[in-house]
Amino acid sequence: MTYPKIQTIGDYRARWGEGPIWWQDRLLYVDIEGHKLIRLDPDTGREEVWDVGERIGTVVPTSGKDLVYAGDTGFVRFDPESGKKTPLADPESDKRPQQRFNDGKCDPAGRFWAGTINSNREPEAALYCLDTDGTVSLKLAGVTNSNGICWSLDGGTLYYIDTPTKKVRAYRYDRSSGGIDQGRDLIDTAEAGYDSSPDGMTIDAKGRLWIAFCHGGCVVCFDPQSGVELEKVVLPCRETTACAFGGPGLERLFVTTGVNAKFDEPEAGRLFVIDGLGAVGSPAFPFAG
Q: How many helices (H) and strands (E) does the chain have?
């Protein structure tokens, strides 16, 4: 029996790492509380770090050289070469500072979905979609902490986590319109025995869901059909926040982490990479706007 190899990669230590995504042989991720955007070349260890001047919840690539992120000021286009920021939309400008954007990803049609988090832990946040024409639509209301999001391999299902519910929900997804239905509960992580919080999520080439558990120090693979746990990987710090497959064959699982001041954890906040899982990821989608 072989065991996965877990190690840190890069030198950067985030206050609260999040949002990893593999694009053009590099890993992009963010440090929410550090206001940083990081791009790592795993082959050389080279890290590029940009201070965007605000809490940044997630970032996605585009078909060009620029990036789009969601943060304290809503959706923003960012040029890494010049550092220029171009505001695109802010549907919650009237809810600052109680709410900010958190996790998000692009759908198969290139729309950027991102949700907000309520600092008072009230169900007043939401999930939004930035369409390719620049318009923003509300997709889900009554959210408290919008987190993991990804799409099934056939593109017909949206998987989504509102962290305090401790559930993964599944929604029928229409690629042509970006519409979703009322959804249904798919996996109840509390019933599965987890008292920690499901956070970031990704999907592999077999359609299995990989979920990072904040306060749980682990990444867990679930079968979305049965809801059964298939594999669990334990990491040496409690705040495991999000995960994404990367590397040349998408065979490496990168995991972001955060620092919890209550615990003495030398590797907390570091980026981890897990090799030898025997799993392969699915490619990310860029923003098409």
A: 0, 24
Q: Report pLDDT for 3.
A: 82
State the catalytic residues.
Answer: 199
What is the C-alpha to C-alpha distance for residues 217 and 219, in angstroms, rounded to an integer?
A: 7
| pLDDT reported for residue 2 | 66
* Helix locations, the chain, DSSP H: none
**Residue 286 to residue 153: CA distance in whole angstroms:** 16
pLDDT-flagged residues of the chain (< 50): none
Does residue 289 fall inside a structural domain? no
Domains contained in the chain, number: 1
Closest alpha carbon to 41 in 25, 18, 29: 25
User: Is residue 9 one of the residues assigned to a domain?
Assistant: yes
Identify the pLDDT of residue 186. 97
Range of 88's domain?
5-275
Token duo for residue 156: 């017909």
Q: Is 134 left (phi over 0), alpha (psi -120 to 50) or beta?
A: left
